[in-house]
Design brief:
Elements: H1 3-36, H2 42-61
Helix pairs in contact: 1-2
Length: 64
């Protein structure tokens, strides 16, 4: 098993174990950014936050 494979497995394990905390942090970050931009980019911020949460979810789903 290569170092990359070990890293990928470890990140997947962490995503499964702490995915909910990561998603909460993404939501808080998106809310903070939305406040700082005065709500002018809400749709883009929400879309980016959803993509980030999907990525975290996908990390936890990879079983190898």
């Amino acid at each position: 098993m290569s170092i990359f494979d070990k890293f990928k497995k470890k990140t997947g394990d962490l995503a499964q174990e702490h995915g909910d905390k990561a998603e909460d942090a993404i939501d808080k970050g998106a809310e903070f950014i939305d406040d700082k931009t005065g709500g002018t980019h809400t749709d883009q911020i929400e879309a980016g936050a959803e993509k980030a949460k999907d990525f975290i979810e996908d990390l936890g789903d990879d079983e190898q």
